[in-house]
Amino acid sequence: MTNWRRACVPDGTFFFTLATADRASILTTSLGRATLREVLVDRHLRWPFDVEAIVLMPDHLHALWQLPAGDADYSKRSGWLKKEFTRRWLARGGGELSVYGEIAGAL
After folding, report:
1. What is the rounded distance in angstroms from the CA atom of residue 44 to the CA atom of residue 93?
2. How many CA atoms does the CB half-sphere of 83 hold within 13 Å?
3. Which residues fall within 8 angstroms of residue 23, CB to CB, at 6 or more apart?
4. Within the chain, which residues score under 50 in pLDDT?
5. Which of 78, 94, 85 shows the shortest CA–CA distance to 36?
6. CATH number of the structural domain 13-91
7. DSSP letter string, the chain
């Protein structure tokens, strides 16, 4: 069994890779980019952090985040970002994945 621990570095800089469910190519669509941008802008209202760099691919993104002084809880931020992106994506008519991994409704 793997024995790993999350880094706990207050005001640290962390590298993330976040992928879409079943690697669906939605992030570079017009709706995907607009939704992701809005969620990243709104993050300061809830869980502040600085985005130092981001690389957006159709089915995943890579990012460097700098957390505020005294704060090491990056997992709540990544969880909120994924949850909020999904909620807003679906509210705007973004398709859900079918049981076959295809997006319902043409994008």
Report:
1. 25
2. 7
3. 59, 60
4. 106-107
5. 85
6. 3.30.70.1290
7. ---------TT-EEEEEEE-GGG-S-TTSHHHHHHHHHHHHHHHHHS--EEEEEEE-SSEEEEEEEPPTT---HHHHHHHHHHHHHHHHHHTTPPPB-TTSPBSS--
Which has the closest alpha carbon to 90: 16, 10, 24? 24
Residue type, 56: L
pLDDT digits (tens, 9 = 90+) for 82-107: 999 999 999 999 988 665 555 555 44
Region label for 47, one of left (φ > 0), alpha (ψ between -120 and 50) or beta (otherwise): beta
Inter-CA distances, 15 with 36, 55, 63, 87, 89, Å: 18, 11, 6, 24, 24
